[in-house]
Write the structure tokens for this entry.
Amino acid sequence: MLKSFRLGGIHPPENKISRGAAIEQLPLPESVVIPISQHIGAPAVAIVAKGDSVVVGQLIAKAGGFVSSNIHSSVSGVVTAVGDFVDASGLRRVGVIIKVEGDTWLEGIDRDSSLNKICDLEPKEIVSKIAAMGIVGMGGATFPTQVKLSIPEGKKAVYLIINGVECEPYLTADHRVMLERAEEMVVGISILAKALGVVRTYIGVENNKPDAIAHISKVIAEYPNIDIIPLKVKYPQGGEKQLIDAVVALEVPSGAIPIEVGAVVQNVGTALAIYEAVQKNKPLIERVVTVTGKKLEKPSNLMVRVGTSIDSLITYCGGLPENSGKVIGGGPMMGRAMCNLSAPVTKGTSGVLIMPSEESLRRSSSVCIKCAKCVGVCPMGLEPYLLYKLADLGRLADTEEHKVTDCIECGSCSFTCPASLPLLDMIKLGKNEVMKIIRTRK
């Protein structure tokens, strides 16, 4: 019997239109905008200035604290500015703008495609190398990876769980990585296991990817401490707490993080990036991005340099279709609508979804009919209808008491609500306000 998490969950249409599209290298752009903050935590600090020449892989911004990440140039060329740009949400950010000239790489980066399985580094050296190369979680959260691998005193990592679920509808980038880069990915997983000192490693993959499960099963045959766990298809199984429950049947307590139950979760794309960082000295300067949509001419999975504009990806895939209603960064459940398509791809850009007008309109809301469907599907065991009401009334103390900070913002409640209430929108507003209050206490 296939495993899955025990609480809540939904089954939205998968729409994996691009699953059969092999990864293609997107041509180099004429210029890039590389944000100095592409991660959770403090922004990096730029160490280049206008007029400087840079090469691919060169450090251009240093981590601004413990929870931060180095930023490297994804292209070679000349820095034309270090200043403001408008991101995909319409907010002003700081970035390094580089005019592309050729494609010269930093000396020491190994661009040979041969597989290097042997890692002679000690665990602390692995973590330091990962930090130096600017690796962050590539499943969407962009948490600096070296921080996740720095286990707090008194805690012990027992399980390394690799997230190959990709439960968000439409997205297929991780699926293609598992099919096309599995050998390197598995070496990256073994490096992670060495850094953490874990005994068992599990790769969780939903059963709608039988080709990936079969391929990885062959690759890990020579790795006795790595197992693949086929999982029942259910959203949001890619959430850390849901994946831990599905794979090792452990529940992370309210307000706690996975290490409290001895687990560390990493994405398959992150594992590939770690292989390239540790074995090839390659910083995180490019990633696979799914560009998809029902009306798009050429749904694709593209290897894209960080800093490349979103609109150039869309152009490569045939251009914006007529009657397009919304362009979403990520998938339809947790992604965000973009208002500026000239904004850059970042380390956390997993997908670009173009939705037709008829599917992108918000449905008219009616009154809550007290059906409790939102409670039944919540994977965190919350009461979304109540959090919605408390947040709407501004009762923040009550909102906090009912554990709004446990919400993972998966959207299952809004998806299933027959009254089409904007449950997640209001809950997110309430959660943000509660988090502000919590920060003031510290």
Remarks:
- The chain has a mean pLDDT of 97.
